[in-house]
């Protein structure tokens, strides 16, 4: 499962970036996002079509949900990791390879757990953020209005954000994913993988935590606007300066 960097040395670029030779530098978290999205976009339609190979693939992946990449030897060398290795190899020198592996592994195995036994829709859905998915889950369970802010589900999201180790993040995300699965609320696992990669670098952690909280609050604004549109009134505008950069996470699905 370990990916060997194409070059290494004391002159490696700062964490989170790779230094391509003669090409525009691409932050590694974008490659993590792309590798995860490409892999899931390839396997998810096959699973929905009930193809035996995809069903078996997800059964294997589920055994790693909530665990670390090195703990499940049966999953060493899954295709998503190969996709990551190929992307990293194509972009020159890089650092924090193990962080990239952990992010792809955790996102892919959680998606497999989320998708379990569901054939009517894909549980990986672009632009469905973690904070937005938790907000949608709260509403699916019948809580509305100001009670959303006091929901135990919001506290679960806060617990993910305040975790101090990747092991804790993995376990707490697994708990949320099981609840999302029960309510059939999808999640963008490619975006999540990129965030998990950045989270592992201490200087970037606070930024990822802010994103998760911002996603939760933006979903509230979007919900108010949607309800206002349905009732024919003017909704409260969303502060677009808080929205995630589409360029940051887009363009990863197969064929795009």
TrEMBL record:
Q: Which CDD domains match?
A: Cse2_I-E
Q: Superkingdom of the source?
A: Bacteria
Ranges of biased composition (kind: Low complexity)? 1-11
Q: Where is the signal peptide?
A: none
Give one Pfam family, short name only: CRISPR_Cse2
Q: Which InterPro entries match?
A: CRISPR-assoc_prot_Cse2 (IPR013382), Cse2_sf (IPR038287)
Gene3D superfamilies named in the record? CRISPR-associated protein Cse2
What ranges does the record give for the region Disordered, renumbered to this chain?
Answer: 1-26
This protein's name: Type I-E CRISPR-associated protein Cse2/CasB
Q: Which source organism?
A: Streptomyces stephensoniae
Highest classification ranks of the organism = Bacteria, Bacillati, Actinomycetota, Actinomycetes, Kitasatosporales
